[in-house]
Design a protein that fits this description.
alpha+beta, SMI1/KNR4-like, six-stranded antiparallel sheet, 6 strands
């Protein structure tokens, strides 16, 4: 958790100072997934961000935006065990994919052709995803 807190502080993630109108349980119920603890920590304590981290641009949705954004793009309906958590601002979404053994992958995938064959792993956890960004590791290298 220290790595996560360090990156969020370094990148000036906006801290949540009011209780969200949506609960994490609502997102889990909607998606049918048990969200990873590090991602839950982010949702409960921070608002979404829209900025570069390292060499990549990310737009992470806040707790209040997740369900609506996933409905608008049909992500949960079209991709098994996947929920969108943001975008790269260039036609691709950032998502969490959880397999049947509860292994987590953070993925980048196109909004247009929702098919898991297009998923690119960009982290083995939410924290790993942010560490890779902070270390300037490009998604396509």
């Amino acid at each position: 958790m220290d790595d996560l807190l360090e990156i969020m502080s370094k990148c000036d993630f906006p801290k949540r100072d009011i209780k969200a109108s949506v609960e994490v349980a609502d997102v889990e119920s909607y998606s049918g997934l048990k969200l990873p603890k590090d991602y839950i920590f982010y949702l409960e304590n921070y608002f979404g961000i829209d900025q570069f981290i390292g060499v990549e641009f990310i737009n992470l949705w806040s707790l209040e935006e997740i369900i609506e954004a996933n409905k608008n793009y049909n992500i949960v309906e079209e991709l098994t065990r996947t929920i969108g958590i943001g975008s790269n601002g260039s036609g691709e979404f950032i998502g969490i994919e959880i397999d049947l053994s509860d292994n987590v992958k953070i993925i980048l995938s196109p909004f247009i052709d929702l098919d898991s064959k297009h998923n690119i792993e960009i982290g083995k956890s939410f924290t790993d995803f942010l560490i890779r960004l902070d270390h300037k590791i490009e998604w396509f290298s």
